[in-house]
Amino acid sequence: MAGKLFLARAFLSIDKILVTILKTLIVIFAAVMLLLMLIQVIFRYFLFIPSPWSEDLARLALVWTTFLAAALGIRNLEHPKIDILTKHFPIGVQAVLEILIYLAITGFGIILLIFGSRFAWATRIDHYTSLQYPKNFFYWPGPVGGALFIIYSCAHIVATVRGFAGNRKKEKEEK
């Protein structure tokens, strides 16, 4: 029992640090993206000097923000879902559907992790002409997001199973 408690506390501590890092990175990338788009507008429409580097960097910030925010949304259960039908099902059916949904998200995360890593690795030698950084900087957010999708989906599956098992145990004790 003490081992399980230690693992749970360790996971919560790691999760707290990871969430702090994710939130910080999302804010930084969003702020950088906004600043770069402002620079792009000023250069293009007021100074009449095209600025391809600011557009490339803003796009890179958008890609990273998208995948990191999606992972945080999965962690916080803030992703889009339609529960108009499922809320009328019995608790057991709701739990099974919830697990199936998170298994699908986990599968998507596995696909992103495996194939995104392969693609990012394969494009490591290609470079953008505007800044001379590798093109795979655009492709690494997929595998990183995929890994986070897997972690948070599996954590939610475990929480759903535990919550359902706990509810079943309480129902038996009340009878």
Would you mind describing this structure in some detail?
- The protein is built from 4 helices and no strands.
- With 175 residues, the chain is mainly α.
- It has one domain (2-174).
- Helix 1 (2-46) packs antiparallel against helix 2 (52-75) and helix 2 packs parallel to helix 4.
- The two termini are 27 Å apart.
Offer a few descriptive terms.
single chain; mainly alpha
Characterize this entry briefly.
The chain has about 180 residues and is mainly α. The protein has helices at about 1-45, 50-75, 90-120, 140-175.
Produce the secondary structure layout.
Layout: H1 2-46, H2 52-75, H3 91-122, H4 141-174
Helix pairs in contact: 1-2, 2-4, 3-4
Count of folded domains: 1
List segments where confidence is low: pLDDT < 50 over at least 5 consecutive residues: none
Largest sheet: none
Overall 3D form: elongated
Give the SSE order as H and E letters: HHHH
Oligomer: single chain
What's the number of extended β-strand segments? 0
Strand content: under 5%
Helix percentage: over 70%
Category from helices, strands and their pairing = mainly alpha
